[in-house]
Amino acid sequence: MKRTIFMYLFFFTLLFVIFQYMNEKKIFGKQENKIESQKAKIKQLEKSLKIATDSADVLSNTVLDLNYFTLQGNENAMSYFESLGFESGDIEELVAEYIYEENLKSGDNPIIPFDGINGAMKINKIRFLNHKWIIADFTDGKYWGEMVVEYYITTNKKIELTSVASLLYPSY
Fold this sequence. Notes:
Blueprint: H1 2-68, H2 75-83, H3 88-104, E1 122-128, E2 133-139, E3 144-153, E4 159-168
Antiparallel strand pairs: 1-2, 2-3, 3-4
């Protein structure tokens, strides 16, 4: 009887060990598959990150190129205003306000060298190129054009504007 009990215990232990082995093997396989899929996701995300980083570098270089012809991106132009005792950001704000206030007056903006055909010519947008020039976009609602404006600031912050070149696009 003792022998049969030991035999049953042996078989039970053997079956339990085989069951544990098969169960652990299945769990281990699932974990390996999960690790492999996570590694694949990591590689894909690293590739995406590299592409995004490369795109960010390209965008950064593009922004630097675009800022080259701006007042805030031109060290010499900012130094010019600093030598006069002004901050370039304050000058941009002051001149922009002056230009847009001219739009509020009735009739055409006096800076624009064209008379409005469909209404009064008004300046829509300006961009400072440096300490001397501005590019401006203007329209009367139907016709529109662009111009280069030369500006000068006196020491008492009086603004002088002169239209240097302009064009009016044909209406199609």
